[in-house]
Amino acid sequence: MVRRISPLVCTGLALLLPGCYTPETAAPAAPPGYTGSASGEYAPSTYAPSPPPPPVAETIPALPGPMVYWQPGHWAWTGTQWT
Does the first or last residue of the chain, that is N or C, have fewer Cβ atoms within 10 Å of its Cβ? Predict the structure, then answer.
């Protein structure tokens, strides 16, 4: 007895198979100011010579809507100073 696959099943598989393929793409460009290497190692200039300053006292404003929340500030090392 020969079993045949329904044309509807074949069409469904044909539509799903392209989603299984992921073409290889180049790595995204590094953000501005990034001085690390492609291997993820950082250049010595990216190490901060001191810990960040203490947090600044912030006044939390009234929230403008129900889907908004407060995100406190943070310090970031720019390579020459804390901002």
Answer: N
Asked if residue 36 lies in contact with residue 46, where contact means CB atoms within 8 angstroms, the answer is yes
Whole-structure pTM value: 0.36
3-state secondary structure 39-50: CCCCCHHHCCCC
With CA atoms as reference, report the closest residue to 60 among 51, 69, 52.
69
Q: Is the dihedral of CA 19, 28, 49, 55 positive or negative?
A: negative
User: Do 52 and 75 meet the contact criterion of CB atoms below 8 Å apart?
Assistant: yes
The predicted-structure confidence for 4-28, as pLDDT tens digits, reads as follows: 777 777 677 777 666 666 677 777 6
DSSP state of 33: T
